[in-house]
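Slide 14.
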Amino acid sequence: MKKVLAFDLGASSGRGIIATLDGGKITLNEIHRFENNGVNVRGTLYWDIIYLFNQIKQGIVNARLAGGFDCIGIDTWGVDFGIVDENGDLVTNPVHYRDTRTDDIPEELFEEISKDDVYDRTGIQIISFNTLFQMYYMAKYKKKTLSLADKMLFIPDLLNYFLTGEKKIEYTIASTSQMINPYTRDWDKEMLEKLDIPTELLCDIVMPGTILGKVSDDICQELSIDATDVVAVGSHDTASAVVSVPTTDDDFVYISCGTWSLFGTELDEPLICPEGLASSYTNEGGYDGKIRFLTNIMGLWLIQEARRTWKKQGNELSFPELVQAAESCEPFKCFVDPDYPEFGKPGDMPGKIQRYCEATGQYVPQTIGEIARCIYESLALKYRYAFDNLKSITNKEYKSINILGGGANAANLCQMTANACGVTVNAGPVEATALGNIAVQLIAKGEIADIKEARAIIRESFDIQSYEPKDSAAWDKAYAEFKKIIEK
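Slide 15: predicted structure.
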C-alpha cells in the first residue's frame, strides 16, 4: 500500500487527507480540518498565512500519528500570492482576492494595454482580482513594499517553500494569474515590463507532478517525521479537481462546484477568440500540459453568504433545511445573475438579491425559501448559459456534464442543472480536488501510470450519481426569461 497526504485549502476551509492506494482502489481518511477566514486589518482583507501553515504542520502530525505517509501535496485557490525578501522572510501577509483594492485597477491598466490585447496575450477571463491587476496595483501604489521583495510566490508555492525552502511556481496556479503566455506556458515578461511589474520577482515554473524536494530538516525535527517528498501537484484547486473527472471521453464538460463554480472543458491547446472574451471564457493550465477552457461563475457562495446572514438574524438553518424550504416554494418567480458584481462582496446576500429583483422589475422574494429557490434556479440557468456559450465557441456537442466537489452533494442543484441544460448530469466525486491532488502524487511516485489510469481508478473507487433531465419545456421557458434579465 502507498499512502499520500493531500492538503486541500479552499476559500473558507482546509483539510488534510491521507489516501491509500490498495488493490486498484483509493480510500480516504480525513485527519485534519480547519477554518480559513479572511482577516480585516485597517481596511485591508488578508489571508492569515502563518495560521494556515501552522494548520498544515498540525495535519502532518495527525498524519504521522495515523500511520504515516510517503509524500505531501498542497492545492489552494488561485491568483493570491505572498512576497518574500532576500533573506527568505515573508514581507507581509497575502491580501485576499475579495479585498477592494483592485476594484478599479483594470480600467487603469487598460489605459496602457487594451483589454483585448491583455486577453489575446493571456487568454484569461478579465476579473479585477487577477494577479496581474494585484501586481499592477502594487507596482503603482505600493512601491516601497514591493521594493522589499525578492520573489513572489502563489499561496501553494509559498506553503511549499515554508516546507522545503524551495522557491518554485507550479504551472497551473501560475496560469490563473493573467501573467502567462498560454502557448509557451511561461511568463509574458514583455507585457509585464511594459506595465513596470518587476519580472525579477518571478520564479521558475515547474509542471504538476514535479517533486520539489523534501521537507526541511528543521521541520522534520519539529514534527518528528522522516524527510518526505513534497510534490507540486495541480496546485490550483480546479486543476486538481479536473484531474479527477471520472470519464472515459476525450471531450467532456465539468463543473467544479463549490464556493465558485468553474464550468468548462479540457483542450490540448488554448482557444483565444473574441467570442471567448465576450463570454468570459479563460484558458488556464491543466495537468499534462492541457488547457482548462472554463468560465468562473459565482457558485455556492451566494447560498453560503445568505446562510451566514440568516444565521446572524437568528435563523440557523442547515443546507438541507434550506433546500427543503426552497423546494416548498413556487418555481421560476424571479432570477438573478450570480455574477452580478455586488454579489461578490461579503454581507447581506438576501438583501442584495431582493434589491436586484426589484431593480430588474421582477417579483421580490420575501421568505428564506423563496430567496434560496431564486439562488438555486439562477445557478442552474447560468450553467445553461455557460453551456450554450461553450458549445458555440468550441463547435462541439457534449452528451453529459460532470459535477465535481461539494456541489455534487446538492441533489436539487444537480437535478436542476440536468433540467436546465437538457443533458445527463453525473455527480461526483465529492472529494474531487483532494483526489486530483492525490492522483498526481501517485503518478509522481510511479504508483499510477498516467491520468487515464488515475481517472479509471477514481471511477471504480467512488459512487457517481446520475440525473436525467425533466420538465424541459418549463425550463426552456424559464431560460428565455433568465436571458432577458441578465442581458439587459
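Speaker note: Residues 368-394 form the longest helix (27 residues).
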